[in-house]
Amino acid sequence: MSFKYKILGYFFKEKSKTEVHLVLLKWSSYYKDLSTVNQEIFQIRTLIFIKTTRFLSDPNFYVSPEMKIVISSAFTQVTFGLKIVALSKFNTIFIAPSAYTYQKINQLFDGDVNIKTNRVNLSWPAVERGFKISDDALNLCIHEFGHCLIIENSKRNYMGIFNENNLESYKNTAIYFINEVRADEHSFLRNYGGENLMEFFSVSLESFFEKPNEFSQKLPKLYNSLAQLLNQDPRKKEHPKLN
Ligand SMILES: [Zn+2]
């Protein structure tokens, strides 16, 4: 483990790291497959995210430590190859007991990133489904955190979350493939990704993590460009980080 994580590790109790470990062995197939050293780094990054995030819910809906760990692990997973360990704008997460609606919008939501309130809203049953079925390219938390990363990256004047060149080359690749998704009803990426580039990124992320082998075979160019952007390749289960 690098010096940086050794030092950071001292800030958290062994008890907390063990708790994260046990919860994630149960919930996260990504975590389960990591090498021991990477699991230790993952625990520390997840604990930092929890510490820097405010979790809210309805007064009559209890959010357990386990739920916080599961949700936070999705952020750690997506950013495992990057320097960023926490969000600065969207550091409030509201957990709803079921799908919800907004006034004046006649639609049920499982989750959304609200740029007016700077809140990430997630419905717990959808979070649960996302983790329990880990190979269907549907994971609400990965999806919503994808939106957070793109929005926060755009607000940073210097030291972006992503490497500029990698983001540029990802964008060019995405613009090409979004048209394929729009034109093909049976495309590998689900059609919702055709809505716009923002949704395309999040939908791609879900497949990138949940169906990496199929993704890399069917759309190698897009897969590689995402791998560069996130500095990780989920096919390398024990050591996904590239550099
Ligand atoms: Zn979305």
Protein topology:
Elements: H1 3-9, H2 14-27, H3 29-33, H4 36-51, E1 54-57, H5 65-78, E2 92-96, E3 100-102, E4 105-109, E5 111-114, E6 119-123, H6 124-132, H7 140-155, H8 164-183, H9 197-210, H10 212-218, H11 220-230
Parallel strand pairs: 1-2, 2-6
Antiparallel strand pairs: 3-4, 5-6
Bound molecules: zinc ion (ZN).
Residues 143, 147, 199, 202 line the site of zinc ion (ZN).
Q: From the 3D structure, determine the CATH topology of the largest domain.
A: Cyclin A, domain 1
Bound molecules: zinc ion
Name the overall outline: globular
**Overall pLDDT, averaged?**
95
**CATH-scheme architecture of the largest domain:** Orthogonal Bundle
What does this molecule look like?
The chain is an alpha/beta fold. The chain has two domains: 1-134, Glucose-regulated metallo-peptidase M90, N-terminal domain (Cyclin A, domain 1, Orthogonal Bundle), CATH 1.10.472; 162-243, Collagenase (Catalytic Domain), CATH 3.40.390. 55% of the residues lie in helices and 11% in strands. The protein has eleven helices and six strands. It has helices at 3-9, 14-27, 29-33, 36-51, 65-78, 124-132, 140-155, 164-183, 197-210, 212-218, 220-230; strands spanning 54-57, 92-96, 100-102, 105-109, 111-114, 119-123. The strands form two sheets. It has a four-stranded mixed beta sheet. α5 links the parallel β1 (54-57) and β2 (92-96). α2 packs across α4, α2 (14-27) packs across α5 and α4 (36-51) crosses α5 (65-78). The longest helix has 20 residues, at 164-183. The mean pLDDT is 95. The structure holds zinc ion. Zinc ion binds next to α7 and α9.
